[in-house]
Amino acid sequence: MEKWRSKLFLLLLFSHLSSAISFNHPSHGCYWTESCQNKWVGGCGAGHVIINQSDDCNGLCPEPRYPPCLPFHTHFHCCKTESPKVTDKCSKCKNKIDYGDEYICCTDCSDPYVTDKNTKLGYCKTGAELAMQLKPKEVFKWVAGPWMQCSSPCDGGVRYRDVECFGVTEDLSIPHYPVDDSRCSREEMPARQEPCNLRSCAGLNTSNSHIRRQNGMSAWVVTFFVLVGVAAVGGLGFAGYTLYKRRTSSQHGYVYIMLEGYS
Fold this sequence. Notes:
This protein is of the alpha+beta class. Among the domains are: about 50-80, no CATH class; about 85-135, no CATH class; about 140-205, TSP-1 type 1 repeat, CATH 2.20.100. About 30% of the residues lie in helices and about 25% in strands. A hairpin with a 7-residue loop joins strand 13 and strand 14. Residues about 15-25 and about 250-263 have low confidence and may be disordered.
């Protein structure tokens, strides 16, 4: 019984090694193994990872190149892990992995898969190449808004303004964006509030009273001249009316005398 077990194990191991050796693995991307392999001792070559297994490659292994698998055998879906190459296309892809200072993506913008976070080894199921792009350099700076109205007109008030931390990148197509205040330097932070209107209210009231008196005198002067003007216009009108009446009365009297002489 032990002999048969040993022979069976050697036979399975030999079939697995022969199938692995006879197949030329692609340089990158994913593939289905051409031959059926034992589910327990089969697998992919070195540097490849198993992501799936199926008796018919999920319908992607047509006969006769891929004959039906025997019981306990299957095709393995393998992907070759690779180091990402440097590119500038990751920023345009929605499907990417953020690693702080860099992005990991696939050159066709499909979902990338990373098997080792330290070395960034990974693969793309679609067969595209794994890529990496360094993030644009970020600069953080304070942005201060306009001052609000002072809280008091005199005797010292306080005014406020909004001060926020914004991030700026070397990529001009990316607008400024707000970030946490801890990203900006506390020493360079502009003041959010400051005192205002420090002059005394007493001096301000005296000045206002003087201004009001001046304004009052000016108003009286204007009123006086208006009244004088109205009186002058009224006097001229009255004089004209009196002169008109006298002339009219004189003419009627002359006519009356002439008529009386003819009667």
